[in-house]
């Protein structure tokens, strides 16, 4: 029991360190794409900048707006951070390598589906117009893209004939379905951009429209927890992409850091982190909110359902 607890704590510390240096990576590369300076004063080339930012955020006074629901206002970021940690529960590394999730695919889908509740709770409890607009956008956006997300997510499991993440990864390594699933990869990238609230689909925050969206009233530790949750989800979704569609992660699936390290070794997780954090944010302007829903419901979803029907017939 003690060893499992130690491994679980060390696993989540590794995730938090990954989040810290992912933020530094973003703050280094985005300024380079915009020809401006990046953080470089705290430590050698700014390597300690994430820790300085964390100390600054969590040491500031926690301010609660007078018109907000103070209890729910505090619980919102906690729920988002808890959800981000629960997503990693499908990794054997969380349980010390001794517990294996045969139904890992169903677990991930179930946890992903409730992620919007933290965003809605933050926006509603703030009792602010901009925050509420961001929460309503999150709900409408989820209803739109998660239909497509579920179709694409289930495709590798239909091919593998199992809800086991390792079985899905091994079936791709054997070469029996890699080509078919690779056709679904661009659509999946579209979905994870919306799921992780990254540009050009960052409507729930929308700085040019909603100031900061659902988290506009948050500062100090509350904003820090929301920030950690969002970047942890980026790393998780990138790793999940490698496992589901690119055959990554099977070699170390039963080791302590299997799900995370498998994606790193196959290098697919790193590629999708760069795709999510750098290429899309620095290259594309924010899409219009109503046009996204029209695009999904009227154009992409009918095509995808037709493709999925043919896919089931072939499989």
UniProtKB/TrEMBL annotation:
Keywords attached to this entry: Membrane, Mitochondrion, NAD, Transmembrane, Transmembrane helix, Ubiquinone
Q: Where in the cell is it found?
A: Membrane; Mitochondrion inner membrane
Topology of the protein relative to the lipid bilayer? Multi-pass membrane protein
> Which GO annotations describe the biological process of this protein?
aerobic respiration
Q: What GO annotations for molecular function exist for this entry?
A: NADH dehydrogenase (ubiquinone) activity; NADH dehydrogenase activity
The residue ranges crossing the membrane are 6-24, 70-88, 100-126, 138-158, 170-193, 234-253, 259-279, 291-314
| Pfam families listed in its UniProt record | NADHdh
Query: Which Gene Ontology cellular-component terms appear in the entry?
Result: mitochondrial inner membrane
Q: Which reaction is recorded as catalysed by this protein?
A: a ubiquinone + NADH + 5 H(+)(in) = a ubiquinol + NAD(+) + 4 H(+)(out)
What's the domain of life for this entry? Answer: Eukaryota
Q: Would you identify the family this protein belongs to, as annotated?
A: Belongs to the complex I subunit 1 family.
Q: According to the UniProt entry, what is the EC number of this protein?
A: 7.1.1.2
User: Gene encoding this polypeptide?
Assistant: nad1
Query: Could you identify this protein by its name?
Result: NADH-ubiquinone oxidoreductase chain 1
């Amino acid at each position: 029991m003690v060893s499992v607890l130690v491994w679980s704590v060390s696993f989540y510390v590794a995730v938090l360190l990954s989040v810290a240096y992912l933020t530094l990576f973003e703050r280094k590369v985005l300024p380079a794409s915009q020809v401006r300076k990046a953080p470089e004063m705290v430590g050698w080339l700014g390597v300690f900048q994430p820790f300085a930012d964390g100390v600054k955020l969590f040491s500031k006074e926690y301010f609660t707006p007078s018109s907000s629901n103070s209890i729910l206002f505090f619980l919102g970021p906690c729920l988002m951070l808890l959800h981000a940690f629960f997503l990693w529960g499908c990794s054997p590394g969380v349980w010390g390598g001794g517990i294996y999730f045969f139904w890992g695919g169903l677990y991930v889908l179930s946890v992903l589906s409730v992620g919007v509740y933290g965003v809605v709770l933050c926006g509603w409890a703030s009792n602010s117009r901009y925050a509420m607009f961001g929460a309503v956008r999150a709900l409408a956006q989820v209803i739109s893209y998660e239909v497509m997300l579920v179709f694409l997510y289930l495709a590798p499991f239909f091919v593998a004939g199992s809800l086991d993440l390792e079985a899905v990864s091994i079936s791709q390594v054997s070469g029996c379905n890699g080509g078919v699933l690779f056709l679904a990869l661009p659509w999946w990238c579209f979905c994870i951009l919306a799921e992780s609230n990254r540009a050009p689909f960052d409507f729930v925050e929308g700085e040019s429209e909603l100031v900061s969206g659902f988290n506009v009233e948050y500062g100090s530790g509350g904003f820090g927890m929301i920030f950690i949750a969002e970047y942890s989800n980026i790393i998780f979704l990138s790793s999940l992409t490698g496992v589901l569609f690119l055959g990554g992660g099977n070699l170390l699936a039963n080791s302590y850091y299997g799900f995370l390290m498998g994606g790193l070794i196959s290098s697919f997780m790193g590629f999708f982190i760069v795709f999510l954090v750098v290429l899309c944010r620095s290259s594309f302007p924010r899409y219009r909110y109503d046009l996204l829903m029209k695009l999904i419901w009227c154009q992409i979803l009918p095509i995808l359902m037709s493709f999925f029907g043919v896919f089931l017939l072939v499989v």
